[in-house]
């Protein structure tokens, strides 16, 4: 069992997301991540999906997705060089001045943006890899008492070179 990544090009129509997610839930496959957005062609959307599965199950998933009328193309990104980022907001709450300074230093080290500053809180906006976001969350939780995290799914695109991930 490992994380598998799929990109789907689908018709940009009402109900397509429900049909795709229904396929996963109907087979009891748990989605680790799902993002959807329109492409350069507004009639086509691209879904980036992560599912934890074994080889046999993953092959079944791809076959089932390929059979769906609304699916234009299925791309297995699991073993392909890709560029992937995940958006994350982290709110450090109940801060004193020294806590804010520490949050600013952490933001600088991780190369993330300070999106907002309040009387007793700092909001960080992160566009990092899943691993780096996990590291950031762990560090923030170890240094501050109250950290709120909102995470979006990852987006990925195939690399134009051969050295990335």
Low-confidence stretches: none
Mean pLDDT: 92
Order of helices and strands: EHEEHEEHEEHE
Tally the helices: 4
How are the strands ordered across the major sheet? 2-3-1-4
- Biggest sheet layout: 4 strands, antiparallel
Q: In angstroms, what is the radius of gyration?
A: 19 Å
Report the span from N to C terminus: 20 Å
User: How many strands appear in the DSSP assignment?
Assistant: 8
**Shape verdict:** elongated
Indicate the percent of residues in helices.
Answer: 25-40%
Q: How does the helix and strand content classify structurally?
A: alpha+beta
**% residues in beta strands:** 35-45%
Write up this protein:
With about 160 residues, the protein is an alpha+beta fold. Helices cover about 30% and strands about 45% of the residues. The chain has helices at about 15-25, 55-65, 95-110, 130-145, and strands at about 1-10, 30-40, 45-55, 70-75, 80-95, 115, 120-130, 145-160. The strands form two sheets. Strands 2-3-1-4 form a four-stranded antiparallel sheet, covered by helices on one side. It has a four-stranded antiparallel sheet with strand order 6-7-5-8. β6 (about 115) and β7 (about 120-130) form a beta hairpin. The longest helix has 14 residues, at about 95-110. The model has no long low-confidence stretch (mean pLDDT about 90).
């Amino acid at each position: 069992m490992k994380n598998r990544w799929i990109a789907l090009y689908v018709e940009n129509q009402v109900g397509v997301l429900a049909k795709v997610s229904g396929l996963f839930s109907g087979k009891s496959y748990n989605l680790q991540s799902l993002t959807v957005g329109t492409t350069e062609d507004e009639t086509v959307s691209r879904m980036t999906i992560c599912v934890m599965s074994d080889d046999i199950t993953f092959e079944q998933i791809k076959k089932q997705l390929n059979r769906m009328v609304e699916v234009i193309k299925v791309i297995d990104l699991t073993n392909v060089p890709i560029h992937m980022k995940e958006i994350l907001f982290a709110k450090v709450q109940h801060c004193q001045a020294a806590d804010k300074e520490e949050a600013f230093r952490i933001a600088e080290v991780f190369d993330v943006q300070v999106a907002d500053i309040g009387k007793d809180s700092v909001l960080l906006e992160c566009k990092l890899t899943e691993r780096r976001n996990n590291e950031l969350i762990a560090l923030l939780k170890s240094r501050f008492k109250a950290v709120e995290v909102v995470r979006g799914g990852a987006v990925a695109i195939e690399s134009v070179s051969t050295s990335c991930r």
